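Quiz preparation item.
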């Protein structure tokens, strides 16, 4: 099994869709673009985590983690991938292996778990995820899954991506390999049209796919399969009949697109749903490729008409925010397509991008940043929290857009912060999504809490006072003064009462 995993990783690294990879020699190409993880280096996600988040948005299958319960707890539901129907994917399934399983093996427990899931939930398929512990003790999940498929008459798909194999991005690709090996091409769609497409690497975070689908519906374009946001097993299994593949998310599942092109002759392109101009370019690319594949040429005219109407509507709404956002400086700490695709929309609203992170960006992403922001664009490869804090504290940025892990840097610097990564609660895809993003930035900047937290504390600069009176100094001044008056009044009444008693 270890040998098969090693061979699969080498196959993933020999990627013809990666321009950087093609510039290497044959020997260097097979070494890949990653290093073995050292302890603590998986803070940004291990290979298992990458495979799980790439496949879990397939909503009607059971996702079974073969390993200790902590692995499932760490990766379950850590993205806001929404479903329009089935919610089986929201249930966390794990074999929960213990010390005895480590000694005697966990294969029997895995087989029993598959049987229990099928009896209780009857999903169209089960995805079984390998983890570090079960890979190290030698559990052969491929053999168990094959036996379970034969026994129960349901596809049981092994996802061999133990965490120690590498980082999260490698896990995305290993998860995609499981789809290519066991799912895609195994079923046929009920109907096909000349306007069928697959969207690869879109996870329907906060329902973003649902902001794109109406645009495609208006053009008569059908999403045959989304891999994997709001996906269904049958759709993914029959996705080989699409006419065009669109690659999203900075090539995290590029191996699906390149291998489907090689095996089924489906052309692909990389596009983005973030940013008004980029959304328009994506619609044009889809239409052009569909026409090349046999669709009616009038699709191009309808696409341009839709783009003109949607762009006009979006820009008019963004203009309303311009007086308040003009000149505001934004620090963008993200990666992939978002490192450049939201920049144009923010600039349209009058904001200035003081820097954008390129840690997870490809060579093509960096070139796009230069096109939009100029050759002197401030591209941040790996900014430390200390540097991030200093940049915000020195007020070189008015707001930071980033993921949840860096939010506390902004909060410590008492600067506005907006979540733009997968944990966000708002959909920023498509034309509507860009208007939502600008609106959320406006609300974050105008929030009165920032003015309040920047005020000096009431006790700053106060003289040292006796301990018995210290609690009063924590009170607001009017309350403190009223308390002092009341206390003096009580003392005077006490003195008068004592004098009358005598």
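Solution:
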């Amino acid at each position: 099994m270890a040998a098969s995993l090693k061979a699969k990783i080498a196959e993933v690294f020999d990627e013809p869709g990666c321009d950087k990879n093609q510039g290497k020699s044959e020997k260097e190409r097979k070494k890949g673009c990653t290093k073995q993880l050292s302890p603590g280096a998986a803070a940004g996600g291990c290979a298992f985590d990458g495979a799980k988040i790439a496949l879990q948005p397939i909503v009607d299958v059971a996702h079974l983690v073969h390993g200790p319960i902590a692995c499932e707890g760490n990766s379950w539901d850590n993205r806001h991938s929404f479903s329009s129907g089935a919610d089986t994917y929201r249930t966390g399934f794990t074999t929960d292996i213990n010390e005895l399983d480590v000694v005697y093996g966990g294969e029997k427990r895995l087989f029993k778990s598959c049987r229990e899931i099928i009896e209780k939930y009857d999903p169209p398929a089960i995805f079984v995820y390998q983890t570090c512990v079960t890979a190290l003790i030698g559990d052969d999940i491929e053999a168990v899954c094959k036996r379970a498929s034969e026994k129960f008459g349901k596809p049981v798909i092994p996802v061999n991506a133990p965490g120690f194999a590498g980082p999260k991005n490698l896990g995305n690709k290993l998860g995609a390999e499981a789809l290519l090996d066991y799912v895609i091409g195994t079923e046929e769609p009920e109907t096909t049209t000349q306007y069928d497409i697959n969207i690869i690497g879109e996870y329907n975070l906060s329902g973003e796919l649902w902001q794109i689908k109406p645009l495609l519906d208006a053009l008569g374009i059908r999403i045959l399969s989304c891999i994997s946001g709001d996906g269904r097993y049958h759709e993914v299994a029959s996705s080989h009949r699409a006419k065009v593949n669109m690659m999203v998310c900075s090539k995290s599942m590029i191996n699906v697109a390149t291998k489907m092109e090689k095996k089924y002759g489906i052309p692909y392109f990389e596009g983005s749903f973030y940013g008004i101009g980029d959304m328009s370019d994506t619609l044009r690319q889809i239409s052009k490729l569909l026409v090349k594949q046999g669709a009616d040429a009038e699709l191009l005219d309808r696409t341009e008409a839709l783009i003109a109407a949607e762009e006009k509507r979006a820009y008019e709404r963004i203009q309303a925010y311009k007086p308040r956002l003009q000149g505001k400086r934004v620090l963008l700490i993200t990666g992939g397509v978002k490192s450049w695709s939201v920049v144009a929309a923010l600039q349209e609203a009058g904001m200035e991008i003081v820097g954008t992170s390129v840690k997870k960006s490809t060579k093509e992403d960096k070139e796009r940043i230069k096109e939009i922001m100029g050759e002197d664009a401030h591209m941040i490869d790996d900014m430390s929290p200390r540097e991030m804090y200093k940049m915000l504290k020195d007020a070189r940025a008015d707001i930071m857009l980033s993921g949840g892990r860096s939010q506390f840097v902004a909060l410590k610097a008492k600067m506005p912060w907006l979540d733009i990564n997968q944990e966000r609660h708002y959909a920023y895809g498509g034309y509507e999504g860009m208007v939502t993003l600008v609106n959320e930035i406006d609300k974050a900047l105008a929030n009165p809490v920032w003015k309040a937290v920047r005020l000096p504390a009431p006790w700053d600069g106060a003289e040292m006072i006796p301990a018995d009176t210290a609690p009063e100094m924590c009170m607001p001044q009017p309350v403190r003064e009223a308390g002092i008056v009341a206390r003096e009044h009580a003392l005077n009444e006490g003195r008068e009462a004592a004098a009358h008693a005598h």
